Inverse folding.
């Protein structure tokens, strides 16, 4: 009898802890998800020494981004092919198609890290992990490579966190 | 320690005390001050930038976890360097880079150096310091991992034979042998490099 | 000269020989030209190395380097290394909540259907970068002045 009573009392306590724990887990979990929604901008850029690229819809990259690229890379001209602004939420992968050949996939790994996967024609070419804090502080993450179809040219995917 | 505290002018000892009390900003200042030294030691041992970055960062994480055990017997930088050295040695063991050679290989250690005439003239005299450092580094790159490691521990870290043996997990005799042939090989390499460049 | 004698010469130079043996080695160096030549080379090598280790700097900015360390430290700070800021009453409350939260989280995890996206993500390794056919000849560098990290991919 005593044991039975004791068990009942313990069961009530466990249920209370259980309920409270569930509430805490839900609150903390949803707070975390909300905190980890980051806004990003991806720009696909063509670097060339030619005056005008074959693609007429491209516009010239100007301003600070052009200056930054020109100080680091050797090309004379940089043309913006596509620009996408989007949000990435923790717990969900975000796929962004930049061109027929180039797709990016984003994932918030933890509070500090953004993982970016670069796919070329469906094949995974590069996985990078970028500190989110660095992006917040204005860091540019640039995935780049030599252009296959035009010798001497290069492509760039510039990832930034747009200022609110 | 409050956020407004001027960490940059604080001494290492003061920063360590604050870090021991859980102040991460103080620890960050220690990282900023000594990160190059820790990275450089990891690079000198591993000869790989990526591994050196990973191991140096692991050393910082370990030092934070063990900072309560630091009682100032040496400088903080020395204590930290010992941590990164141990991590590098562990990594090299995992990669079997310090793996004991076969008996035949051991007996042939220094096979080439035994027959070389001793270098008698300081052929590197008059070199700019930076150039001398670069040549020494190039020479160290050409040594085996075991030879380079013993030179780093003894010459750059100033560890005695006994301490080198303890860290590398071998006998004092092995340390004496490795150190001797490492020095002889490095001397031959430096002179060889010098003559190549002159030619 | 045999190996043991050569090592003793070296130990003498390194100050690792007892004083009675040191006198004997000194006599050998004065009497034996080969021993003297070897000592000269060992001294030269030591002189070249002294204070001449190449200086290297971390090829990453202070913030970038620290952010990776900080990422590893945060969980440790939250649990173990930071006892001071909690008042006794507050800590008592958390001591009660944390096991309950963990139990609840475990229960939620076990009840989740296998196809749930959250469960798939929970299986990810926390820190390792997964590579496919990448990284052969790829280059990563950072420009501090431009605050730009560049991952140059060679096989697109």
């Amino acid at each position: 009898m005593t044991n039975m009573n004791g068990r009942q009392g313990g069961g009530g306590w466990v249920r209370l802890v259980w309920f409270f724990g569930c509430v805490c887990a839900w609150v903390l979990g949803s707070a975390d998800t909300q905190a980890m929604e980051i806004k990003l901008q991806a720009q696909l850029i063509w670097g060339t020494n030619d005056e005008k690229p074959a693609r007429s819809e491209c516009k010239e990259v100007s301003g600070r981004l052009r200056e930054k690229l020109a100080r680091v890379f050797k090309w004379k001209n940089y043309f913006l092919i596509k620009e996408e602004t989007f949000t990435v939420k923790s717990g969900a992968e975000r796929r962004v198609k930049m061109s027929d050949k180039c797709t990016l996939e984003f994932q918030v790994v933890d509070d500090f890290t953004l993982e970016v996967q670069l796919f070329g024609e469906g094949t995974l070419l590069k996985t990078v992990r970028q500190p989110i804090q660095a992006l917040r502080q204005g860091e540019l993450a640039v995935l780049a490579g030599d252009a296959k179809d035009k010798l001497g040219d290069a492509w760039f995917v510039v990832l930034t966190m747009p200022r609110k | 320690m409050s956020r407004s505290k001027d960490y940059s002018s604080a001494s290492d000892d003061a920063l360590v005390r604050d870090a021991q009390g859980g102040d991460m900003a103080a620890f960050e200042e220690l990282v900023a001050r000594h990160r190059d030294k820790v990275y450089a030691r990891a690079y000198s041992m591993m000869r790989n930038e990526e591994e050196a970055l990973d191991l140096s960062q692991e050393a910082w994480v370990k030092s934070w976890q063990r900072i309560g055990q630091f009682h100032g017997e040496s400088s903080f930088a020395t204590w930290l360097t010992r941590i990164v050295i141990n991590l590098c040695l562990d990594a090299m063991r995992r990669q079997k880079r310090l793996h004991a050679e076969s008996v035949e290989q051991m007996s042939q250690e220094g096979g080439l150096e035994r027959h070389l005439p001793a270098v008698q003239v300081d052929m590197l005299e008059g070199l700019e310091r930076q150039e001398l450092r670069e040549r020494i580094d190039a020479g160290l790159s050409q040594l085996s991992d075991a030879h380079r490691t013993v030179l780093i521990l003894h010459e750059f870290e100033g560890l005695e034979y006994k301490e080198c043996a303890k860290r590398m997990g071998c006998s004092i005799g092995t340390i004496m042998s490795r150190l001797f042939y490492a020095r002889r090989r490095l001397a031959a390499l430096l002179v060889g490099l010098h003559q190549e460049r002159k030619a | 000269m045999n190996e043991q004698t050569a090592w003793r010469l070296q130990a003498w130079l390194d100050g690792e020989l007892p004083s009675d043996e040191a006198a004997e080695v000194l006599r050998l160096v004065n009497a034996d030209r080969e021993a003297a030549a070897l000592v000269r080379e060992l001294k030269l090598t030591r002189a070249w190395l002294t204070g001449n280790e190449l200086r290297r700097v971390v090829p990453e900015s202070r913030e970038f380097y620290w952010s990776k360390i900080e990422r590893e430290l945060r969980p440790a700070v939250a649990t173990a290394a930071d006892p001071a800021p909690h008042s006794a009453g507050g800590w008592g409350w958390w001591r009660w909540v944390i096991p309950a939260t963990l139990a609840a989280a475990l229960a939620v995890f076990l009840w989740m259907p296998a196809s749930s996206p959250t469960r798939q993500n929970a299986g990810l390794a926390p820190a390792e970068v997964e590579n496919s056919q990448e990284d052969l000849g790829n280059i990563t560098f950072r420009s501090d002045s431009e605050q730009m990290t560049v991952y140059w991919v060679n096989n697109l």
